[in-house]
Amino acid sequence: MALRIGYVPEHFSTPLYFAQQHYGLEATLIPFPSGTGHMVTAIRAGEIDVAIGLTEGWIAGLGKDGVEGDGGYRLVGTYVETPLCWAISTGADRPDITSVDSLAGRKIGVSRIGSGSYVMGFVLADKHGWLKPGEQPFSDTVVLNTFDKLRAAVNSGAADFFMWEHFTSKKFYDSGEIRRVGDIYTPWSSWKIVASTKLAPTDGSLDARVKTLFEKLDRGVEHFNQNQDEAVRYISTSLGYTEPDAREWLKTVRFPSKTEGVKPEVVSDCVAILRKAGVLVKGKGMEPEAMVVRSEAGCRASNL
């Protein structure tokens, strides 16, 4: 049976598309434009088998207190090695918001609780000194599910700002729909691959289909690196980005040559920052080492 793979239909999905288009990846690709938080729910519900999403979303999902059962998934691979640039956006006509500093105590829009857009709000607050013990850094957290609703909310005043990936946001700055206030980079490599615990048990015996996925993805990444013009054509014709933005993004992103395996320090460092930011609580939830399942090949790759 073909794997059901959840992914975000943005420019980062290009190597996955190449793996299926050129190298025979047998899988059903299921788009989740609302992001990682939605995929956490879907993989736990058994709607998808594997997913590619944001590091902080996966780790927050496993690390919070009160996760039911075995958590439903484990980190098994690395999809993007570079950090993610989160653009901080407000409405086009919001003269009250002039800088990142003016966002303290405001209403933050997020796609879902536990999503990357939610988690990065706490990282932003920590960076700017807005976190106070036992207090929320924002006056309200408005859950809006989709990027369109986030953009509408900052223009209507239902939310004051939100964060989303830079190049996905840029086209809406260029059109004048929303306005950029600033940006913040993740302090960790940005995208990870997770598998359902049914396919990635803790003994490291990954399902053969997941191993095949890594092989095909590695070829998709190699194709991406060697065929940049084809990547730009796909991104600008199928994913709705401009050609200049696609080319600019290519300068900022690095995919691993081997997608299998996760460096343990990436997970422990992310957990430490999320605990400092108040997203996770030390002593509660899953410990970093329990979040990762690696086969022997993945262990070797992560130690290179």
Automatic annotation (TrEMBL):
Its main location: periplasm. It is found in: Periplasm. Residues 86-184 form the Ca3427-like PBP domain. Coiled coil: none annotated. The keyword Signal applies. It holds the Pfam family PBP2_Ca3427_like. It comes from the Eukaryota. Keywords: Signal. InterPro entries: Ca3427-like_PBP2 (IPR054364). One of its GO terms (cellular component) is periplasmic space. Belongs to the bacterial solute-binding protein SsuA/TauA family. This is Ca3427-like PBP 2 domain-containing protein. It comes from Hirsutella minnesotensis 3608.
